[in-house]
Write a structure and sequence with these properties.
This protein has two helices and two strands. It has helices at about 35-40, 45-60, and strands spanning about 25, 30. A two-stranded antiparallel sheet has the order 1-2. It binds zinc ion. It comes from Acididesulfobacillus acetoxydans.
Length: about 70
């Protein structure tokens, strides 16, 4: 595994403007604040919402104990 100085968002593929702390991490998968905010303001069922929800579910599935939101 190579060390990464800056995380890359799983959703938009961008490096967050404010670096490591500009977003959240679920089981090693990083999502930037911008996508988080887009998700919160996205309409439920919209393509962005579904895409991000799928990415989050995939990340959460890595954890055996489950959980969710
Ligand atoms: Zn993003």
């Amino acid at each position: 595994m190579k060390a990464e100085v800056y995380p890359v968002c799983r959703q938009c593929g961008e490096v967050p403007r404010c670096g490591l702390f500009d977003g959240f991490r679920i089981h090693g998968r990083f999502f930037c604040t911008e996508c988080q905010e887009r998700l919160l303001s996205a309409e439920i069922g919209s393509p962005f919402y579904l895409e991000m929800a799928a990415g989050l579910k995939e990340a959460l599935r890595q954890k055996r104990s489950g959980g969710g939101f």
